[in-house]
Amino acid sequence: MLLDEPAEGASARDHEDTVRGVMDALRRIVRDLRLSARGAERSAGMSAAQIYVLQSLGETPTASLRELSRRTLTDQSSVSVVVSRLVARKLVARKPSPDDARRVALSLTTAGRRALARCPEPTQVRLVAALERLSEPERSALGVGLTALVREMGLDAGRASMFFEEAPSRDRDG
User: Total domain count for the chain?
Assistant: First the structure.
């Protein structure tokens, strides 16, 4: 059996049930994310990450890369990769900001708005909404637990890219 000894006061069965419950929860979340990603590819011809960025950009007329990163709760470099792909497909426009020429303003093009109207709701939207509905102690405990799990798996190095979005070839730590 792969399970370590249970914590003091817990039975072996309780320990196994807890680990199984965590594994089942992770399986359900990953399955939903994977199915959503496949559905996005099939129905919209783009990745779930691209749909999530389009949806986030569609909430306001324009946004900077930093604002978009904040809205998607994703590292700015990961969002930049997705935005570049959307710009290449002419679904997002990149223009100098009217407020500050050093900044870039991102907005949906007409084609981007049409594409967004055809897209299914990204699972990430439901995931973020569910996290927001958790109580602060639940959200905090989940964050601590998942951070520890990632550390124990040796996955804490490098940046976390958007779900099911390929990292650029020079940075495959995604």
Answer: 1
